[in-house]
Amino acid sequence: GKYYEGRMLNYSRGGMYFESDFAPDAGTDVFIGIENSPYSSGHDVYRAKVMWVKKLADKESFFYYGIGVRYY
Known about the structure:
Structural class: mainly beta
Number of strands: 5
């Protein structure tokens, strides 16, 4: 029920890597919405499981955490 902003940096058929200020625990189920997707005319939404979370070094990103997820 909560909304957090992030930036996707790597996308594949099986999952994605994104950065955000929100750090969900590994194993958490999340829904990821992608606005203006080049792959569809609407708003894409994916259900995924958080596989890992990494705290990012200062100045490495605009966000605090890197998150790897796998789609359902």
